[in-house]
Fold:
Amino acid sequence: MSTTAASPQSPTAAPLPDEVRVAIVGSGFSGLGMAVGLLEDGERNFVILETADDIGGTWRDNVYPGCACDVPSHMYSFSFAPNPDWSRSFATQPEIWAYQQKVVERFGLRPYVRTRAEVTSATWHEDEQRWHVETPRGSLRAQFLVAGTGPLCEPKYPDLPGLDTFEGTVFHSARWRHDHDLTGERIAVIGTGASAIQFVPKIQPQAQSLVLFQRTPPWVLPRPDRPITRFERFLFRRLPFTQRLARLGVYLTRESFVLSFNHVGALRGLPRQVGLAHLKRSIPHDEALRAKLTPDYQVGCKRVLISNDYLPALGAPNADVVTSGIREVRPHSIVDHDGVEHEVDTIIHGTGFHVTDQPIAERLRGADGRLLAEHWQQGMEAYRGTTIEGFPNLFMLVGPNTGLGHNSIIYMIESQVRYVRDALRRARQGRFAAFTPKPAAVQADNDEVQRRLQGTVWTEGGCASWYMDARGRNTTLWPDFTFLYRRRVARFDEEQYETTPVRRREIERETVGV
Ligand SMILES: Cc1cc2nc3c(=O)[nH]c(=O)nc-3n(C[C@H](O)[C@H](O)[C@H](O)COP(=O)(O)OP(=O)(O)OC[C@H]3O[C@@H](n4cnc5c(N)ncnc54)[C@H](O)[C@@H]3O)c2cc1C
Structure:
């Protein structure tokens, strides 16, 4: 095992360093954004640990047909790495993944990445003021740990009676089986979330039959997607400010959604009318089907979905929507709660991810030896959505209440990265060796977030969504304008933390540059 940090020459398969200043867990937008920030600050003593065999997170794993972002690409990309070559307003998965790869090359991140290095545990050692991190490729020590492990990373499978007896093919949309040809098959899709509405219209035309098991219909609004013209791309390349303007336009439009979701309840009627008109236009002749697909909760309570082909696909002669629920799965069929048996060859789970019970919480042990999952027994909570009481020198990107229902999460990630960088700068200046947020600060911060959530569409819109945890508390969303969040994390507010001074030995180590 090497004794230095990842050197800029080492490939992703190189040995793990013994010790780093910063260990970043995950190589999605969070991990990559963090790494670029560190390099900008001149920090080279870090490593990016990644479970999979390549970088990319969401955009490496979700390769289902039709996978694309639903925030326009000018906004769903790093502000410091605009891509003038986006081919469409909503880029598809291959293009977004290629963009991430370009970011890795452009900023020279590859040498810092260690793939197949899943963090199986990380424990804070108070005596050493270090995290001990275990991976299948060995262990390392880190002064700071940044978890960029993603809110939508670990697929969630439904617990269906008899599923294990099913003799056909079963897979999750985030683990798409491209080796399995769906042509002419009888397909069951379970779930109606953001992924299902993208892949259903792509597979319906090739299926013999498609039966969609729907618990709750989503609000589906028109998707203003179009190719970006060659002239526009020329402009973006030659006059970069034009792309910045386009980005600003997207940002402001998306922020305006907060007015109806949060501040001005009276505005909620407008998106509802747009959604109902879209449904009528998409399925003009089948009132019964429209009734099944009409949500009975407010727009925005669940993630608003955009599609022009999902609703028409469900109106096709080979498609069926079942709303009574699943009673049991048999070797070649699914029986619904009305007792109807649906013969199927393949079951596709579009059932989302473990959001409020993230696997990383089972792997991090804080100062008192407790697992983060134990600490979060009453629900996820962090200070500024980023740092956690009793878990020194840990930062969580897209942590509790920093997810979004209305705009690009990359904006939030960049806001958090600034906060982390400021903390690390201060640590570097010798102001502290370790920190943990004061309990009172965590409490006040979370009370305020929960107060802001009151009266919003996310808590009172009349739906059960994955934004809520098992106790019915919304621990995932930032409930306001994103610039207000950015303002909250504009500087590392050291006064809200209990800090441990740098020991003399550490200062000497820093001074001689060991
Ligand atoms: C299909 C889909 C479409 C989406 N579209 C949008 C959109 O349009 N707009 C938007 O704002 N958001 C969207 N999202 C949300 C999306 O997850 C975020 O935008 C963003 O990609 C999150 O980046 P991340 O780096 O935080 O997490 P991820 O991209 O999930 O990356 C996490 C990484 O951490 C790694 N990892 C996890 N645990 C460990 C471990 N223990 N050890 C080592 N590595 C680990 C994973 O392998 C993964 O590579 C979408 C999500 C999905 C699933």
